Amino acid sequence: MTNKQTHTELLTTLADGAITRLSKLPQPVVRVCGPLTSGGYGYNENLRRFRIAEERLKMEGDVVFDYFKGNSDELVIKDAGIKWTDVMEYYHKPILASQLIKKAYFMPKWETSNGAKWEREFISKSTTIEIAELSDEWFV
Question: 106 pairs with which residues across the strands?
């Protein structure tokens, strides 16, 4: 088995688990998109902003698919050193294609992130997920 196959299997298993968690949430479900591992403000600040956005959306009454709470997907993926293109193809794509997410909120500087640009293009061309923008004021 090659490293590529191992990574693909790992990402597929993680995506299946994420879709199972997602399917148990009351609809409609939203998610946050934006820079995390590339672009934006650097990983730690990007992660802080992700968490702020998710919490604010929850406070406003949205059901948010939280990639960080109750699972270790992000840590497992980051520690495995998997190429971002594989993460998008085998983890994020199946989640987005499930159509269980109804709205995607893009954080500022999403266009500086390889993954967020990929998500934006995939969502706009291949799904019915609504796209919204979060302003910088959300994070001050």
Answer: 33, 133
φ, ψ of residue 104 in degrees (nearest 5)? -120, 120
Specify whether the CB–CB gap between 124 and 47 falls below 8 A. no
Domains of the chain (ranges, CATH numbers) = 3-139 (3.40.50)
In angstroms, what CA-CA distances link 68 with 1, 2, 5, 72, 100? 29, 28, 25, 7, 18
**pTM of the entire structure?**
0.90
pLDDT at 30: 98
Q: Are 95 and 20 in contact (CB under 8 A)?
A: no
pLDDT at 72: 83
Give me the mean pLDDT over the 4-23 stretch.
Answer: 90
Beta bridge partners of 132: 105
